[in-house]
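During the reporting period the student researcher (J.K.) took over the structure-prediction task from the postdoctoral fellow and processed the backlog of single-chain submissions. One of the processed entries is reproduced below for the supervisory committee.
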Amino acid sequence: QVQLVESGGGLVQAGGSPRLSCAASGRTFSNYAMGWFRQAPGKEREFVPAIDKTGSNISYGASVKGRFTISRDNGKNTAYLQMNSLKPEDTAVYYCAAQRTAFDGIYSVDLNRYDYWGQGTQVTVSS
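J.K. obtained the following structure tokens:
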């Protein structure tokens, strides 16, 4: 089992730059690719970015590419999502997720491929 706890959400003004954290415990963090997803009211859960277990391979969803940055610190068992230039349409509950992978360089943009999820943290962007 892997337990994931997100933090860093809240009410932010448009243009703001908060950083979300995802603290992992329970198993070896470096065995897991990490992803961030978000879900706005009435919408499906959407892929944001993902990072492989070494931190060397990253992918971003089209709506956040160039504004958000995913990273991880395997020594601290934590993944991060730096969000810049926030827009009201970024308002959502943000979830981190862990995917068990055997190989470096692997991650998924498909939420169904993830094995563990955090409880989510609300990010609300005011205009």
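The committee noted the following: The radius of gyration is 13 Å.
J.K. will present the remaining backlog at the next meeting.
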